[in-house]
Amino acid sequence: MKNLNEISTRLEIAKKNIKKNQIKDKDTNAASLGKALKISTELVASVVVGSTIGFLLDNWFDTKPMLTICFFFMGVAAGILNVFRSAKKMHNKLNK
Amino acid sequence: MALNPMHQFEVYRLGPEINLGPANLSFTNASLFMAISAATILFFLFFGTKKKSLVPSKIQLVTEMTYSFIAKMINDTAGSAARPFFPFIFTLFMFVLFCNMVGMLPYSFTVTSHIIVTFALAAIVFIGVTIIGFIKHGIKYLELFVPKGVPFVLLPLIVVIEIISYLSRPVSLSVRLFANMMAGHTMLKVFGGFVISLGLLGGWLPLSFSVALTGLEILVAFLQAYVFAILTCIYLNDALNLHH
Fold first, then answer.
1. H-helix or E-strand containing A85?
2. What residues does each domain of chain B span?
């Protein structure tokens, strides 16, 4: 019985600690760093994918530079769209 | 050779060469370290769940914490509809985490610093999520590429942009993990090389940098596994609940 009492007091202390921590780590450093890494690659990846699609289509239709240029800009637009969406998601989460 | 910072990423064959048609299936050091990571995970989870006591031992506590951590993450980002995919996301997270962490040990090889590994993982996620979306919504899943309230004239342009943005998911997912791991390990090796070339007199400064960078790299190793898993959850959420 003594053992169980000890456990219950320990549990209470632990619960209190959890409550304290929950207020603190809403926006920890690690989470922000993760978001930063996430957004930075999103912009680049879309540009790369767009340009690659343009290049492949160019080879296919034999229209050398035209489609690559078009799809490069579309890739940039898609990248900005991606970043914008992530930022919006973060904003919505903060306002909750 | 010892000072070459890129030497650590070399893949070489261990044992005999195995060719299956055009595919080279030889056992390499990359396969060895993947096997080591998988074995470590199995070991860890096996001993963590062996003795299920009410007051958990340390290893049981850590195992239960990883479980509840992933379960909470899935619940928060993808909702309860994504709960059947828990085993997949848990496996993915643990595999990436342990590959990253095993790579932090001296003389080991970082599997996730090769883009083919990370791209294969991202491609599995991407193809899987697309299939799930089509199973769940049928042809209506293509509505993902047509945002609401767009004027009819702009529609062709927007659809192409949306498709590029969708296709860029596996690229950004894989490049992020690969680039972070490779850059970090190269940097560690460069500073390690400075310690040797500057010797006993000037080597202390790069050595302290090396120690600090090791700490940072362990943080990045965890963070990248976390980001990989959470983005899988977000993509899954898009496929399960069709709206932006």
1. helix A64-95
2. 7-240
